[in-house]
Amino acid sequence: MVPTGCARRPPHGGFPRFAGAYVEHARLGRLAALVRAGAFPLITLTGRSGVGKSRLAVEVAGRVHERFPGGAVFVDLGQKPDPGVALESVRRALRMDDTCGTWSGLVRRLRARRTLVVADRLDQRADVAAALVEAAALAPGTVVMATCVLPLPEPVVPRFESAG
């Protein structure tokens, strides 16, 4: 078992094949295509506990990780007591050295290599959510796929309005 916050390579190494309980396979394919395209810096999977959001995120990451030269990493942000511990979890997952242990270092790392960050339970860390979304927005092609029980706070989620 991999300790919480450490880098995990997405499926299918060690994970069973996806059974499709949370979402039918056609929608899974559309979600994978959306992540693969990298057009949105943040994609959230929101729903009550236990419905399979994390498992779905891991399955999608397994299907698209080859499109991200920086890899796909899984970070469990639930029950991290302070921003420093949460940052350390993200830093370790991205295999950043100690000299890059700041949020500006995170932005530099994500700009250098297009990365998929699966941020599990991101709604429990609004401070980390804001920083991750900002970092991903500054690093074209990088995607944060977040699992949340509650919607992220309004300032975190960018608003897109259609013209007309």
Automatic annotation (TrEMBL):
Keywords from the UniProt entry: DNA-binding
InterPro entries per UniProt: P-loop_NTPase
GO molecular function list: DNA binding
UniProt key word Kinase: no
Record flagged with keyword DNA-binding: yes
Top-rank taxon, per record: Bacteria
Protein name: Putative Xre family DNA-binding protein
